[in-house]
Amino acid sequence: MSDGSLKKFSIRMAYSELHDGGDVVRWSKLIWFSQNIPKHAFLLWLAIQCKLPTQDKIRRWGNYDLMVCLLCYSDLDSHDHLFFNCSYTSKFWAKVMHKLKMDNSNTDWEGVVGAFVDSYNGSSVGSITRRLCLAASVYLVWQERNNRLFKDERRSVDDFFKCFCDTIKMRLASLKMKWSKAVCDTEKIWDIKLNVISG
């Protein structure tokens, strides 16, 4: 190990040696929770750190023309624009926030992340649903952008929102939850039958 001694190998010890034990960030629980969809979690992790390769970032690598946003065709492709200042994504985001019964006044990315951090409430069904929705929103917006860029495929905001709702419904339906009024409310809001266990 780091002190030069030999010890029996274990994954835990290797992780402890490699993990720098840095500070826990406020937003970590938005991403890293067992109910999240792994590919959504990874993309949200990149997005929260503004590390997605939007055209404004790619331009820093060389002298490239900036590309217009392929979702609205009215502004440049950038992280701040994509999440959720673009007319396409802002319409979608308003629908998401309405579904979650959350305030939609935050339009800048930092404000969105802050609002979700502030609404974190442990492992309640509402908290899980809100975090799933944030991660799925980011993942699906990025997917829609890339589908338009690389495949020339487009969805209307309504079709896009339906895909989002189906994604959330499928994930919620795959989870086991203890009965509560909040679970019943979630079933009504999302029009699904959840896997409710007793006790």
UniProtKB/TrEMBL annotation:
Coiled coil: none annotated. The keyword Nucleotidyltransferase applies. The keyword Ribonucleoprotein does not apply. Residues 9-93 form the Reverse transcriptase zinc-binding domain. Keywords: Nucleotidyltransferase, RNA-directed DNA polymerase, Transferase. GO terms for molecular function: RNA-directed DNA polymerase activity. Pfam families: zf-RVT. This is Reverse transcriptase zinc-binding domain-containing protein. It comes from Artemisia annua (Sweet wormwood).
